[in-house]
Amino acid sequence: MPKAYWIARVDVTDPQGYQEYVAANAAAFSKYGARFLVRGGRFEAPEGTPRARNVVLEFKDYDTAVACYHSPEYAAAKAKRDGRAQADLLIIEGYEGVQPA
Q1: For the chain, what is the domain count?
Q2: Residue 36 maps to which CATH number?
Q3: Fewer CB within 10 Å, N or C, the chain?
Q4: Residue 76, Cβ neighbours under 10 Å: how many?
Q5: What is the DSSP letter of 13?
């Protein structure tokens, strides 16, 4: 079964308030076994319109990634983010097929 990922692009408008979201999301991420693969860091955007912050979280599978997003723990954290950041979030299943040679 392939892993799944949250891919988030975020523009933080209230950095101090956003830290409340960061502290609160740990409960959901811990419960659902999320692991940060990308959390900020340098980036280049050769195509499209970037946001200032990029995050990639890994989950054991797609159903777990979706369940985390819809959980009461994440809803409580997201309420702390609302109005403090503009975000795009994609939940996507990983690929385990043939790779280019």
Answers
A1: 1
A2: 3.30.70.100
A3: C
A4: 14
A5: S
User: Using one digit for the tens of pLDDT, what is the confidence trace for 9-36?
Assistant: 999 999 999 999 999 999 999 999 999 9
DSSP string covering the chain, please?
---EEEEEEEEES-HHHHHHHHHHHHHHHHHTT-EEEEES-----SSS---SEEEEEEESSHHHHHHHHTSHHHHHHHHHHTTTEEEEEEEEE---SPPP-
| CA separation for the pair 87, 92 (Å, rounded) | 16
Per-residue pLDDT band at 50 (split at 50, 70, 90): very high
Q: Would residue 99 count as lying in a domain? A: no
Structure tokens at 77: 């954290």
Q: Which residues, in sequence order, are CB contacts of 35 under 8 Å at separation 6+?
A: 57, 58, 59
The pLDDT value recorded for residue 77 is 97
Range of the domain at 59: 4-42+50-93
